[in-house]
């Protein structure tokens, strides 16, 4: 069999390449550079890199390819995907093929040679972990995952438990933070295995892991088993990958149906009606224990004023229920008035950088639900005759269906809106903005002319919308700077979409960027200006 892999130097793709090479297949591929993973495969002569990869169909005999595999980083209109699309061959995305092979291995459908190649390729490293030696908690959901992980970690630490947490932010182990360097919420199974095998985790009793729909769909958590699964909510996100909400839901649900220990338990949010009905039915049909959080906890828990929103009360209530369900000595009496009173919050989640004379907040809100929850909660805190000034955009190469609705939400709650880049990647930033503006009731008629403009303004009803669309980090800086310089006493400047992140992607290049650093720089300018 002949195999062709686009993006063969990626971690998952290179492991698949090793699997097929071990089985004696001919493997070819392309990538940007000849990295160490490709060199380790020993097939450099079969690999095209850089500009030469553009001529793959001339330089490699692709007419007899039986299996085409592509990295999810390759767009649907990429020349390699387009070339193989109409060929009568097997075609798989890296993650979905990995997941399929794992299922074949676990169900005993592989031959002895395939099993041997599979194990030698290290596609299932988490099988080496003894999941019964510690208590493991998984947190998934569309929004609130990182905050809920941090809340569970905080509570367990306050109760004197030896705890570690792996999330979007990095890894926390007994109060010590380590930047994992990963740019995905849930690392690959190989990376997760390395984290869980670290010496500093040997004496840890509780481990909390943030999990995503991608990680579950791609088999990154295969052979991981959790005592508790927390689902914060399932709204709408990542439809660029999952295509439909049902597919997205089903990927999340795999945490419950496949990754729970025999006596594991699920903690559900019954205030998220759409997902709760389906999740409750799923648990009942599969005889899986589940519970919702206590309304007494929700009503009586004490949170810091700036952190005290309905949204975070739900996250905190889920965290308390998870802790009560997982600790070995049974439910404890958690002091609701003090357990989270000193919780300092999470970087890039409702993070106040200034409170007076006007507030400046950085928040990761990049979904419809998160933006709606954030802006509606800030509206409740807004003083009379003061305004919300929202700085935001939408990412390129991600779920396009949310853009118009996010524009609608921003327009509903914000008197002043500053549209700017948020990882446009290879998409045209102005076309992203066109879709957002539709939600504000603004139709761009002359799109070609609009694409040539780096800055423009619109006045719609009593809302002022300013658009910054130079294709660089400078655009986001100018948007934040304008919002801060224009803010009046009592206003709330809220900067959405990037949160904790420290890079921003234009085309395929990651540039250094931090909303927090930008704000500090701008405030210094403001002081000097006075």
Question: What's the structural blueprint in terms of helices and strands?
Answer:
Layout (H helix, E strand, L loop, with lengths): L1 E5 L4 H12 L3 E6 L4 H6 L5 E3 L6 H4 L7 E4 L8 H7 L4 E4 H13 L5 H9 L14 E6 L4 H14 L4 E5 L2 E4 L2 E3 L10 H8 L9 E5 L2 H5 L8 E6 L7 H4 L2 H14 L1 E9 L4 H13 L3 E4 L2 H6 L9 H17 L24 E4 L4 E5 L4 H14 L6 E5 L9 H12 L2 E4 L9 H10 L8 H5 L3 E6 L2 E6 L4 H14 L5 E5 L6 E4 L2 E4 L2 H15 L1
Helix pairs in contact: 1-6, 7-14, 11-12, 15-16, 16-17, 19-20
Task: Describe the protein's architecture and organization.
It is a single chain. The chain is an alpha/beta fold and 530 residues long. The chain has three domains: 2-120, Rossmann fold (3-Layer(aba) Sandwich); 125-326, Mur-like, catalytic domain (UDP-N-acetylmuramoyl-L-alanine:D-glutamate ligase, 3-Layer(aba) Sandwich); 351-529, Alpha-Beta Complex (Protein-Tyrosine Phosphatase, Chain A), CATH 3.90.190.20. Helices cover 38% and strands 20% of the residues. It contains 20 helices and 22 strands. The chain has an eight-stranded mixed sheet with strand order 9-8-7-10-6-11-12-13, sandwiched between helices. A hairpin with a 2-residue loop joins strand 18 (455-460) and strand 19 (463-468). The longest helix has 17 residues, at 310-326.
Low-confidence stretches: none
Roughly how many Å apart are the termini?
A: 71 Å
Number of domains: 3
Largest sheet: 8 strands, mixed
Helicity level, as a percent range? 25-40%
CATH superfamily of the largest domain: Mur-like, catalytic domain
Order of strands, main sheet, comes to: 9-8-7-10-6-11-12-13
Overall mean pLDDT stands at 91
CATH class of the largest domain: Alpha Beta
- In CATH, the architecture of the largest domain is 3-Layer(aba) Sandwich
- Count of DSSP helices? 20
* SS-based class: alpha/beta
Nearest-angstrom radius of gyration?
A: 24 Å
Rough outline: globular
């Amino acid at each position: 069999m002949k195999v062709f892999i686009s993006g063969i130097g990626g971690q998952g793709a290179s492991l698949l390449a090793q699997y097929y090479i071990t089985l004696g297949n001919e493997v070819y591929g392309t990538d940007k550079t000849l990295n160490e993973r490709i060199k380790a495969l020993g097939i450099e002569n079969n690999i095209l890199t850089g500009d030469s990869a553009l001529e793959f169909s001339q330089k490699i005999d692709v007419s007899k390819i039986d299996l085409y595999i592509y990295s999810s980083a390759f767009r649907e209109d990429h020349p390699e995907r387009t070339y193989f699309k109409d060929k009568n061959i097997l075609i798989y995305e890296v993650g979905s093929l990995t997941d399929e092979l794992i299922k074949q291995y676990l169900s005993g459908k592989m031959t002895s040679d395939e099993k041997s190649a599979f194990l030698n390729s290290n596609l299932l490293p988490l099988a080496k972990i003894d999941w019964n030696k510690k208590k493991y908690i998984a947190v998934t959901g569309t929004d609130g995952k990182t905050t809920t992980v941090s809340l569970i970690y905080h509570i367990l630490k306050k109760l004197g438990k030896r705890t570690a947490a792996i999330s979007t932010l990095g890894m926390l182990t007994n109060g010590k933070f380590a930047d994992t360097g990963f740019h995905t919420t849930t690392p690959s199974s190989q990376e997760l295995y390395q984290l869980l095998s670290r010496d500093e985790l040997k004496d840890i009793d509780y481990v909390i892991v943030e999990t995503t729909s991608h990680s579950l769909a791609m088999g990154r958590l295969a052979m991981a088993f959790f005592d508790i699964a927390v689902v914060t909510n399932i709204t709408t996100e990542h439809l660029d990958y999952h295509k439909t909400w049902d597919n997205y839901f089903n990927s999340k649900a795999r945490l419950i149906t496949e990754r729970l220990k025999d006596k594991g338990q699920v903690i559900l949010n019954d205030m998220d009606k759409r997902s709760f009905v389906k999740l409750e039915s799923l648990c009942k049909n599969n005889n899986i224990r589940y519970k919702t959080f206590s309304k007494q906890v929700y009503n009586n828990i004490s949170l810091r004023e700036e952190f005290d929103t309905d949204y975070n009360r739900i996250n905190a209530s889920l965290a308390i229920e998870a802790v009560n369900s997982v600790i070995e000595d049974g439910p404890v009496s958690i002091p609701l008035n003090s357990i989270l009173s000193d919780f300092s919050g999470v970087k890039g989640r409702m993070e106040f950088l200034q409170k007076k004379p006007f507030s400046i907040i950085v928040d990761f809100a990049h979904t419809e639900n998160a933006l709606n929850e954030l802006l509606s909660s800030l509206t409740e805190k807004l003083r009379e005759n003061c305004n919300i000034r929202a700085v935001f955009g939408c990412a390129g190469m991600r779920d396009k269906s949310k853009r118009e609705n996010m524009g609608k939400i921003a327009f509903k709650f914000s008197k002043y809106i500053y549209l700017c880049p948020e990882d446009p990647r290879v998409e045209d930033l102005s076309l992203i903005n066109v879709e957002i503006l539709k939600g504000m009731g603004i139709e761009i008629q002359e799109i070609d002319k609009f694409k040539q403009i780096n800055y423009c303004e619109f006045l719609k009803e009593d809302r002022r919308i300013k658009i910054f669309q130079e294709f660089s980090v400078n655009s986001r800086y100018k948007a934040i700077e304008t919002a801060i310089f224009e803010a009046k006493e009592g206003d709330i400047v809220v900067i959405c979409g990037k949160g904790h992140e420290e890079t921003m992607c234009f085309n395929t290049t990651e540039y250094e960027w931090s909303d927090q650093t930008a704000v500090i720089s701008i405030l210094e300018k403001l002081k000097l200006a006075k």
